[in-house]
Amino acid sequence: MPKRTDIKSILIIGAGPIVIGQACEFDYSGAQACKALKEEGYRVILVNSNPATIMTDPNLADATYIEPITPAMVAKIIAKERPDVLLPTMGGQTALNTALALHDDGTLEKYGVEMIGAKKHVIEKAEDRQLFREAMDKIGLESARSAMVRTFEEAVIALETTGLPAIIRPSFTLGGEGGGIAYNREEFEQIVRNGLAISPTHTVLIEESILGWKEYEMEVVRDHADNCIIICSIENVDPMGIHTGDSITVAPALTLTDKEYQIMRDASLAVLREIGVDTGGSNVQFAVNPDDGRLIVIEMNPRVSRSSALASKATGFPIAKIAAKLAVGYTLDELDNDITGVTPASFEPTIDYVVTKIPRFTFEKFPGAQALLGTAMKSVGEAMSIGGSFAESLQKGLRSMETGLTGLNEVKIEGAPDKAAIRAKLTQPIPFRILYAAQAFRHGMTLAEIQSATKFDPWYLRQIEMLVTEEENVRTNGIPKDKQNLLRLKKLGFSDARLAELVGREEDDVRADRQALGLRPVYKRIDTCAAEFPSRTSYMYSMYEGDGFFEPENEAEITDRKKVIILGGGPNRIGQGIEFDYCCVHAAYALRETGIEAIMVNCNPETVSTDYDTSDRLYFEPLTAEDVIELCQLEQTNGELLGVIVQYGGQTPLKLSAALEKAGIPILGTSPDSIDLAEDRDRFQELINKLGLKQPANGIARSVDEAVKIAESIGYPIVIRPSYVLGGRAMEIVHTTEDLLRYMHEAVQVSGKSPVLIDSFLQDAIEIDADAVSDGENVFVAGIMQHIEEAGIHSGDSACSLPPYSLDEAMIDRLKAQTVQLAKALDVVGLMNVQFAIKDDEIYLIEVNPRASRTVPFVAKATGNPIAKIGARIMAGEKLGDFDIDPGPFKHIAVKEAVLPFNRFPGVDTLLGPEMRSTGEVMGLDTDFGRAFAKAQMAAGHTLPLKGNVFISVKNHDKPAAVQLARDAIALGFGVVATHGTAEALEKEGLDVTPVNKVQEGRPHVVDMMKNGDINLVFNTTESKQAVVDSFSIRRTALTDDIPYYTTVAGARATLRAIDNLKRGALDVRALQEYLGDKY
Amino acid sequence: MSSPTHTPPPGASAVLVLADGSVFWGRGVGARGEVVGEVCFNTSITGYQEIMTDPSYAGQMITFTFPHIGNVGTNDEDIEKATPVALGCILRQDITEPSNYRAQKHFNDWLTEHGRIGIAGVDTRRLTKRIRNEGAPNGVICHNPEGTFDIPALIAMANDWPGLEGMDLAKDNSCEAGYEWDETLWTREGGYGALGNAKHHVVAVDYGVKRNILRNLAALDCKVSVVPADTSAEDILAMNPDGVFLSNGPGDPAATGTYAVPTIQKLMDSGKPVFGICLGHQMMALALGAKTQKMDVGHRGANHPVKDTTTGVVEITSQNHGFVVDKDSLPDHVEATHFSLFDGSLAGLRVKDKPIFAVQYHPEASPGPHDSHYLFKRFVGLIEDAKSR
């Protein structure tokens, strides 16, 4: 059946800001959906609050609403746009939940909007545990055995069906309180009795434990004619009990017989049919008992997901794009398989390689959080790798992490070689347990011992054992000097760097020796069909192939075109995420527009950059010197490689520039020397002095003594950090010598040999971000952004406003002038970001980065100037004058707000600081600052109260400012509650304040008030260590109880302005295209 | 003087040579010795044991496109015939220790035990593309741990092999005497089941039948009498079947057809429901007056989309055939019912107004998706209709 003609316009809901568990995979799927539906001639209306996405580019949808994704705001968009249908399956859980809410509140019915892709009852059936279980029972699929009990006696009966260990879940307790795993009868009785007591309904669910079972996922696509296909099977190396997003996973499943695989396939299709997903992609998760193959359905998602992005990248089958087309009526056999161009989409991809996905964690950013994995996802990014064998794929994946791994590197196990100590470590669900498994082999543990502790399938462990043995051989006998034996190791995925480490040589030497043997990787194509049909798509991965005798076949088919290679950002992490991918994607688009071949290199499966559609050629490869140099040198064998873009993918490609230069590969744009100059303290200081600009007083320390001396000469407080970092890692504001000594002890561990940098901390200064694009002669300052939070809060965690909301024109002109001066002095060709601080009308330079910054997409969205594209074209040879740039001023204000992952890390303080911890951002767009800020807060998930009580507790330094805050709050009709010290200061000014106890002052205290719903807004600034400790529970409670809280005076001020605006009228919605005018 | 490519690299214990002189070095797996046949490929990721025991692979050695083969070992259940039929296997990676609760034997040991020769370490993708572009070549796998190989002799051996075209392999792969089949489909809990009270009687003509076909029929309450390929129509009809099944099998349908076609014509004239699969489909087409031809690229995989034009539904099928029925040669009273969505080739037919139909692919799967099991129901449905008349 062809597409529906009764539909004219389609509303797509995006996923909003990047958070843990919902990352840029939804930009990938959403962007695909927008493109696919627009190409069919539909009017596409999009709502997404995340400005760093490709999907919110103004030319991707017909009307792009960068507005908060709340039912109320989306309802306004519906009222305004009157879409015929709503597609809720592209924006993760956010979109599903919003769609459900709009259904339930009658909005969809009121405006006659039909849900396509997944209907309400489908979503409910899939998401409601009880309904889902009933559905599974109906089709004869097993769920974990369980029983709801009301007494201990019933529990004992239940135990007969579940057996031990058993999972005990008391009903309706917050965050699973009182639940646990009972391994013996005594524990069982204790946990059950306690659970029955604390459950408000005195009921407890007793569930069979399937921890340690094997976990699988099937990616399924179905059309409305009931054609169902499996795109990919995925097997988790980590067993049940660890969230699949935190597991190392392998595609395809490697330890199933066809009989078991087909049972799982049949079950997946049965689940889709029973749940009633008419069209689109879904995934179904299974647990399999390794002892007898018993199969249990865990859950299903009736929408595209992180795994569907992975499956799309792993197989070349674009699930989201196809799902979007199926949603408007096509059937699978009517759609083409883009990759082959000769076969239809109604087939099951088959692959002739192995894919491994490895998650990346950021526990070090959250002191206080336990680095343990469980059923709630913790990872912030992932890399995918493709190889000719599991070993090759795994080792490529490990070096894709960019955490310093070159393969199965050694890790220290406390207490080793004591077996009990190793076993204890292996039993814990820790990140990168695979490295500990390898280490256990090194310590002589047997496969059976390691298997029983980790529950990894023996197949994978045997592969690891084999790699460890090979490493041992290399250690003993050196790196093979003959081609055949070295090829054997390279086929197992050993990197030059790892081989070099094993024998204590330099990576460059190992590479030179290898290349001298004529041993190079070849590139194979991802073709969806294991070479059964020719592929017309240049989607490639490297592998070592052949017998070392004949030239192995290389499918790269290097063209004779002019080309540019764009290096992506690798796995997402805090500080380097979707914003950089946005820049890389724009570089590819821009180069393609000008007829230059755009070649993308990246290993992040969640991204738009690794969509085979984005560039002319895609290499899905680790971003290491070895992997990148090989493909660059290959690309140089035909056509003209203009150069490599290293300034768009964040720190990852920048780190490679020295190695690339050394290998004779041209680098486009700003020279690596200029980049180095900006990062090198001494050289940079020289430049600043020459330009007559100001910097906070600073120094560089290579020892603890030196640090203390410098700090004393500058004067506390100081900002201290190691050199060469992104996202402010290990950066701290230090107020005392004691703190400095503690920092030095820890930082030396963090930064190894590199020195620490010490700056005077400019208290209460206004911080500024400036983004500019330069062609080496002319500079365009694309955006001056004023931070809401004062200097000292990491710019990535700070809200900011474009244009500045409290600076005068003269100051803005001075900032622009300094930006231009810097760009010229650094010979910037491409993008540049500068951070300034303003204190007492004086501008201080904090740092300059001659590369794409995190704020580039925000600036581009806010101004309509596609600066990432312009920068890329300038790097390829064009001049600023060639572009039609809108210098503003604009009638609207854009506010960016950061989104923080504290709710994922229990026990972690939510105070902001110089260390970046946000995972994502949102943008609020309106015609005045207050409304734009209010929208940004809403989009970030904070619902600002219009009445109630404000709790104010501030450090001494902020007391004068607090008076004005309280006065404004009262004027807005709020009651003010304050701790005694603050209350006294406010009362002195004649303000009406309700004093309240601090937590340590006895009950009832402020947290009691918060928990009782008597506090609606929290302003809390702290300074001394003790105050931070004392107020910790206030911030945590605000977080868990969803009370908006601000930990800076500036943030509090902006909030009151926003509330003032909100009280004066409801927020309107407006499409980006309306703000930007006729350009789009 | 031997060509440099004829000198084995260090460590090579096996070689694959093609009739065109191509040489692929590798490590031997399974039995020692040499074997000549047609080199084809299969893109299935799972089910290597079923594939190796599929009688349709007689005369062929299989290039597995998925790199890891042997991961789950072998067992006594996942077989389509008691012993492997495919001549050999060509693998990318070495065979690993098995990991699966059902594994009983290492795949390598199983191959050795059954005298099957294989080679690992081959660039299977390159070989697959060679087959895709130039057709399935004759080839020889030679496994010799001593590492000495007479390459020119092996090339000559490949060239001397007559090829599958014109070869009747069904007779060799059929049963020697008839037998009754009562094993039903596999379940995890119970393994293979057994037929209880049969409702229908089907005679299956064995041209090299896969057991899962028989299991599917038995699972639908059919008592199945399997008879040798050269059993006469009279003898078959004398067994008074409710329906006749024409099995899959290896080789050239035209060659096997010389004796099978007249029999099939008589069976179709009897008015009994007749169902054919793969070779059975091809020979039914020949019996109906259509033509078969060798394909440039055979269909071998478990991901092939087929559209049932009678329902509009697309099914993902398991396929294994190097010959095909020319869809333009179908006589008027025969209707095309299924097409391959990969290349548009004919995948199924039926005789108008008669309970006679056939498909080119493998609805019994094993390995492969179960989407097409409905065809067995369709056949039993026709039997029930015929009986109720």
Automatic annotation (TrEMBL), chain A:
Where on this chain does Mn(2+) 4 bind? E847, N849
GO MF term (any one): metal ion binding
Residues binding Mg(2+) 3:
Q835, E847
Question: InterPro entries, per this entry?
Answer: ATP-grasp, CarbamoylP_synth_lsu_oligo_sf, CPAse_ATP-bd, CPSase_dom, CPSase_lsu, CPSase_lsu_oligo, CPSase_preATP-grasp, MGS-like_dom
Where Mg(2+) 4 binds, per the record, is at E847, N849
Cofactor binding note of this UniProt entry = Binds 4 Mg(2+) or Mn(2+) ions per subunit.
Q: So where does Mg(2+) 2 get bound?
A: E299, N301
Please list the residues that bind ATP 2. Answer: R721, S760, L762, E767, G792, I793, H794, S795, Q835, E847
Q: What's its EC?
A: 6.3.4.16, 6.3.5.5
**Record function comment:** Large subunit of the glutamine-dependent carbamoyl phosphate synthetase (CPSase). CPSase catalyzes the formation of carbamoyl phosphate from the ammonia moiety of glutamine, carbonate, and phosphate donated by ATP, constituting the first step of 2 biosynthetic pathways, one leading to arginine and/or urea and the other to pyrimidine nucleotides.
Give the PANTHER family listed for this entry. CARBAMOYL-PHOSPHATE SYNTHASE [AMMONIA], MITOCHONDRIAL (PTHR11405:SF53), CARBAMOYLTRANSFERASE FAMILY MEMBER (PTHR11405)
Subunit record text: Composed of two chains; the small (or glutamine) chain promotes the hydrolysis of glutamine to ammonia, which is used by the large (or ammonia) chain to synthesize carbamoyl phosphate. Tetramer of heterodimers (alpha,beta)4.
The protein's name = Carbamoyl phosphate synthase large chain
Q: Which organism was this protein described from?
A: Thalassospira lohafexi
At the highest ranks, the source species' classification is: Bacteria, Pseudomonadati, Pseudomonadota, Alphaproteobacteria, Rhodospirillales
TrEMBL record, chain B:
Task: Write the record's keywords in alphabetical order, separated by commas.
Answer: Amino-acid biosynthesis, Arginine biosynthesis, ATP-binding, Glutamine amidotransferase, Ligase, Nucleotide-binding, Pyrimidine biosynthesis
One family name in Pfam for this protein:
GATase
Q: Which InterPro entries match?
A: Anth_synth/Amidotransfase, CarbamoylP_synth_ssu, CarbamoylP_synth_ssu_N, CarbP_synth_ssu_N_sf, Class_I_gatase-like, CPSase_GATase1, GATASE
The protein depicted here goes by the name Carbamoyl phosphate synthase small chain
Q: What is annotated about its quaternary structure and interactions?
A: Composed of two chains; the small (or glutamine) chain promotes the hydrolysis of glutamine to ammonia, which is used by the large (or ammonia) chain to synthesize carbamoyl phosphate. Tetramer of heterodimers (alpha,beta)4.
Q: Into which EC class is this enzyme placed? A: ligase
Q: Where does L-glutamine bind?
A: S56, G249, G251, L279, Q282, N320, G322, F323
Source species, please? Thalassospira lohafexi
Pathway linked to the protein: Pyrimidine metabolism; UMP biosynthesis via de novo pathway; (S)-dihydroorotate from bicarbonate: step 1/3; Amino-acid biosynthesis; L-arginine biosynthesis; carbamoyl phosphate from bicarbonate: step 1/1
Q: Which BP terms does GO give this entry?
A: 'de novo' pyrimidine nucleobase biosynthetic process; 'de novo' UMP biosynthetic process; glutamine metabolic process; L-arginine biosynthetic process
Start and end residues of each stretch annotated as CPSase: 1-200
Q: Which reaction does it catalyse?
A: hydrogencarbonate + L-glutamine + 2 ATP + H2O = carbamoyl phosphate + L-glutamate + 2 ADP + phosphate + 2 H(+); L-glutamine + H2O = L-glutamate + NH4(+)
